[in-house]
Amino acid sequence: MKNRKRHESAVRVGAAVKTVLLCAALGAAGVGYVGLKNQIHRLSQEIVRKEKQLENLRADNARQAQQLATLRAPPFLHARAAELRLGLIPPQPAQIVRLPEPSVPMDTGAVEAARRMQLAEGVVETAPSGRRSLH
Amino acid sequence: MITARQLRRMGFIGGLLILGFAGLGYRLVELHVVQHEVLLPQSEANTRRSFLFTPRRGEIRDIRGNPLAVSLPAKTVCADPSLIGPHAEEVTRALAPILAMPEARLYELLSRRWRTNAQGQWLTNRFVILKRKVPLETWEQIRHTMTNLTFGVEGRKLTRAQAQFYYNLRTKAIFPYPVEDQLRIYPNQRLASHVLGYVGLRETEVNGQPVFETVGMDGIERVFDRQLAGVRGWRVTEKDGKNRELVFLRQEDVEPADGLNVVLTLDAQVQYIVETEIAAAARQHQPDSITCLVVRPRTGEILAMATLPDFDPNAPGDYPPDARRNRMVTDMNEPGSTFKIVVVAGALNEGAVRLEDVIFCENGAFAFGGRVLHDHHRYGNLTVEGIITKSSNIGAAKLGMKLGEERLYHYIRAFGFGERTGVSLPGETPGLVYAPKNWEKVKIAQIPMGHGLAVTRMQMAYAMCAIANGGVLMRPLLVDRLEDPDGNVVVKYQPHPVRQVIRPEAAAQMVRALKTVVTREGTAYKARLEHYTCAGKTGTAQKPENGGYSHDKYYSSFIGFFPADQPEVCVSIVMDYPKHGYYGGEVCGPVFQRIAERIGNYLNLKPDVEPAQQAEGRLAARLPGASAKRVERN
Is the pTM of this model over 0.95? Predict the structure, then answer.
């Protein structure tokens, strides 16, 4: 008695599964392709939106820089100070106290350290009498 | 079983199909191969779009980084009159106030015009520019206004065609030009207008597309136009049927490179001080024009340069050409007595004279070369220093004769006269200096007094700077550096010595002599400073008129520097035909004093006049008859 499974007219499960898988793969690829295209379109719109946003921000920035420049302009500042009657005037030279530049106190420790370094490099030699002299 | 009839039918249908497919195939081959060259551009024109991006014009800033000229993005507003149809009047009423345009002019632009072409077809205008350089906020306002216009119709009662017409009218009839524009703004209005210059429009064509460029027309805007302008960007992309960009099909996308920022050596505050003071002087003396230049003698840096009459670079067209001219560099005139510094410096440098040497000044009248030279007072013997102090014409003429024609000419040229200074401004004139072979006999006496040659105010100021700078002539430095938009230095301009004109010892002697000009004995006592020692020279030159010299029109000037022995700042004031007073020391000296005191204070220069001397000076000024002894006792 022949096995029915090996009968020629029996359904070939393996082939059917392969066909279904192939179709599923093709379908998935198609859906993926459409999805990717959709994503590209969406990102394109996003790029356009961001570019527009950047353009607006740059325009705002330029406008605010211009406003700042106007507010900082000497004619405007002087007019505003006069308008508000702030009584602002620059200090006169006689009102400015100038302190003399302080002389830098000699750091004996640092001098000694520098001398020791020079000694080590042979730049300074010790005189026979014990006193040091420069080359 | 298939019958013969069925076979025939199949054959017929099959034949039709083959024929149909063959026809289609042929058409495909024809379109894609045979007519490829013709159809490809048409196909691309349907989908491909190219855009130009305008770079942002660089800023002009002062040495402290304060913007003096900035750019704002702007729109060019256009209209399609064919879409406006019979509603031009309503659109005009709505837009005229926003665009700040006269209604009649706007109505004329929005109205349809008909014309016939060569084939006799009737055509209407579909593009008209309403206004350029419209700020973005104004454009948004225009768009909002157009969208909300009702035109007295109800949407529900309209036919489809009418609805489409009103939709186009509201959204497409007024539109911005595709290439961005920019608006140049000078936030300080008139401040330093002659230095900054102004911009204008130039029409060019890029890839067959008309483009309006902002170009510098004068001043720094013109000289540094290439650096300020930047480089245009572009994009080639595709659009879908609804005119939306398909970003993923962008083929070329090049960002514009914004222009460089030009950082000047000018200080806006110093410029403001100068402009307010010369405006006050102009009100007082009513001159035809007045100029002031403030320079650091050691480096040649220009801290301020002002000319009146001036203009607002935001609207240069509202002012006459005369007001837009930078007289500092474009105008030349006979300098008068300020030029005496050249002959005296030359004579000292050559060892021809010493400051103590005495010259007989002919008691005020000296006949030479068929002319009679005069002094303001009848001076007898004057030392060389006294010639500077008193500004003796005869003394200067005699020094010129002592120096000789060739050597005098050499020093005139060495001080920079007869050639352009090289300042970064357009329209500079070299002045007028003739070679000695073309001199008449009297020239050797006239030129030392500052007559018989023409110089610019800038040349004269830099000659004085050379004396203040130990005899070294510097090239004018107006631009400190160029920066990219991120603030990185691209080019740094260094001070440039032109030549050693006179020895430092001779320059020191000149400074000693020039210090006496602002003493009681000198011609510019009113130019003395309270907190600083200063040195300078006055000039009062008659204006040429009808082939001779006018007796009531003068160029008055004073050029001085301070502190005298360690000069930090040199200030030159020149007035053209002041109506109230005309002596340089009288009209320009006080202006120098006010400007110098304010600038010294602003720049925090260390005063080199002791407080005791100040008090003494003040008291002496209040009590002209008071003796020094009384002052000391007080």
Answer: no
Name residues whose C-beta falls within 8 Å of residue B340's C-beta, 6 or more positions apart in sequence: B387, B388, B391, B396, B448, B449, B450, B537
The segment(s) of chain B belonging to CATH 3.40.710.10 are 268-313+330-621
Contact A75 B188 (CB under 8 A): yes
Contact B536, B518 (CB under 8 A): yes
Question: Measured between alpha carbons, how far apart are the two ends of chain B, in Å?
Answer: 147
Dihedral pair phi/psi, residue B360, rounded to 5°? -85, 125
Closest CA to B314 of B574, B135, B173, B443: B135
Residues of A102-116 as b/e, b for ≥16 C-beta within 10 angstroms? eeeeeeeeeeeeeee
Which of 52-111 (A) contact B at CB < 8 A? 58-59, 62-63, 65-66, 69-70, 72-75, 78, 90-94, 96, 98
Decide: helix, strand or coil at residue B168: helix
Helix (H), strand (E), coil (C) string for B456-517: CHHHHHHHHHHHHCCCEEECCECEEEEECCCCCEEEECCCCEEEECCCHHHHHHHHHHHHHH
CATH 3.90.1310.10 residue ranges in chain B?
Answer: 49-264
CA distance B340 to B359: 15
| Inter-chain Cβ pairs, chain A and chain B, closer than 8 A | 69
| pLDDT tens digits for range B75-89 | 899 999 888 888 888
Helices (H), B251-403: 268-285, 321-324, 327-330, 340-350, 384-390, 393-403
Q: Domain B268-313+330-621 is classified in which CATH homologous superfamily?
A: DD-peptidase/beta-lactamase superfamily (3.40.710.10)
- Name the strand (E) or helix (H) holding B3: none
Look up the ipTM and state it: 0.75
> Cβ contacts (< 8 Å) between A98 and chain B: which residues?
606
CB contact under 8 A, B70 and A92: no
Contact B50, B245 (CB under 8 A): no
**Paired strand residues for B374:** B365
The upper half-sphere exposure of residue B325, i.e. CA atoms within 13 Å in the direction of its Cβ, equals 13
Tens of pLDDT, residues B277-316: 999 999 999 999 999 999 999 999 999 999 999 999 999 9
**Shortest CA gap B115–chain A (Å):** 40
**CATH pick for B49-264 out of 3.90.1310.10, 3.90.215.10, 3.40.50.300, 3.30.70.20:** 3.90.1310.10
Residue B531 to residue B566: CA distance in whole angstroms? 14
A93 → closest Cβ in B72, B248, B601: B601
Option in A40, A74, A93 nearest B607 (CB) = A93
